[in-house]
Write a structure and sequence with these properties.
It contains 12 helices and 9 strands. With about 300 residues, it is α/β, with parallel strands linked by helices. Strand 1, helix 2 and strand 2 form a beta-alpha-beta unit.
């Protein structure tokens, strides 16, 4: 059985390039599985997984649930809005109570950056980070990078522009780590108010002109504006943001090459990207969603403690 160098998936920063390649090779197998008439294997039949989401989620949560069911795991879903956290219970007490019911793995999403790292130091169960604050979203970066690999044949040497709200995005940071580890060139693009001050220390380029970023790149990964995480408005209005930083069809048509269009979702159509771009032949947004299930199956399989005992 292939192995990873980590026992939890807390962030891409902690993975080696060889770990990412192992996950991708395993995902290739599971992608074939989910395209069969019978989309299920008994791999994690003896494993119980709790999806513990302290933030709202649609795509990530459904993707993890499907991945778990495709692997025949027993799943439990936890929602913070109906939990004892509303009565004052601590995060650690909540998690320990879930683990007391003999849960093997936790998929955790939390609004606080570092929440998964904190839990990993306090508990013995396997943890997969499904997004923590503005820190990291490792499985999203894995599926994004995997999608580039499937379309381009290689990640090394590809020029990838991450466009939008870089400052508040956990997807951006994880993507930067994953792409750089596999040899891609990375540029971030957006208003100065939405780009972290020292982002270039991560070995990426910075651009504030969207058209120049599109002319440079082979792949444009367009991010959602994270209004819910902005303590103060970083730009005058959504209309003005769309005017200067939204990706429009005429911008894509003006290029002398074809580029891939990506988006982690949910899409704010008409704000960061227009519908005729999101739905164009150059868009692989729905491929990202499909690849997400295979990637999460691979991560669950490779980290499953019940398999490691065998």
């Amino acid at each position: 059985m292939p192995k990873l160098s980590v026992s939890n998936l807390l962030g891409i920063d902690e993975l080696k390039a060889s770990d990412i390649k192992t996950i991708f090779e395993t995902a290739d197998h599971f992608k074939e599985v989910i395209n069969r008439p019978i989309k299920k294997v008994p791999t994690l039949r003896d494993t119980t997984i709790a999806n513990v989401f302290f933030e709202n989620s649609t795509r990530t949560r459904i993707s993890f649930e499907l991945a778990e069911k495709r692997l025949s795991a027993d799943t439990v879903n936890f929602s913070a809005s109906s939990s004892s956290l509303k009565k004052g219970e601590t995060l650690l007490d909540t998690i320990n109570n879930i683990l007391a019911m003999k849960v093997d793995m936790l998929v955790v999403r939390h609004a606080s950056s570092g929440a998964c790292h904190f839990l990993s130091q306090k508990i013995g169960a396997t943890i997969i980070n499904a997004g923590d604050g503005t820190h990291e979203h490792p499985t999203q970066a894995l599926l994004d990078t995997y999608s580039i690999l499937k379309e381009k044949g290689s990640v090394r040497g590809q020029k990838v522009a991450i466009i939008g709200d870089i400052l508040h995005s956990r997807v951006a940071l994880s993507n930067i780590f994953a792409l750089k580890k596999l040899g891609a060139e990375v540029m971030v693009c957006g208003p100065n108010t939405l780009i972290p001050r020292y982002i270039e220390l991560l070995g990426v380029r910075k651009e504030t002109n969207v058209q120049k970023a599109l002319e440079w790149c082979d792949v444009a990964n367009v991010l959602r504006i994270q209004l819910e995480r902005q303590k103060s408005r970083a730009f005058p209005s959504l209309r003005e943001y769309s005017l200067y930083y939204g990706i429009k069809k005429e911008m894509i048509d003006a290029l002398d090459k074809e580029i891939l269009i990506m988006h982690p979702g949910p899409i704010n159509r008409g704000v960061e990207i227009d519908s005729d771009v999101a739905d164009s032949d150059q868009s692989i947004i729905l491929d990202q969603v499909e690849n997400g299930v295979a990637i999460r199956m691979a991560v669950l399989y490779l980290l499953a403690p019940t398999l490691k005992k065998n």
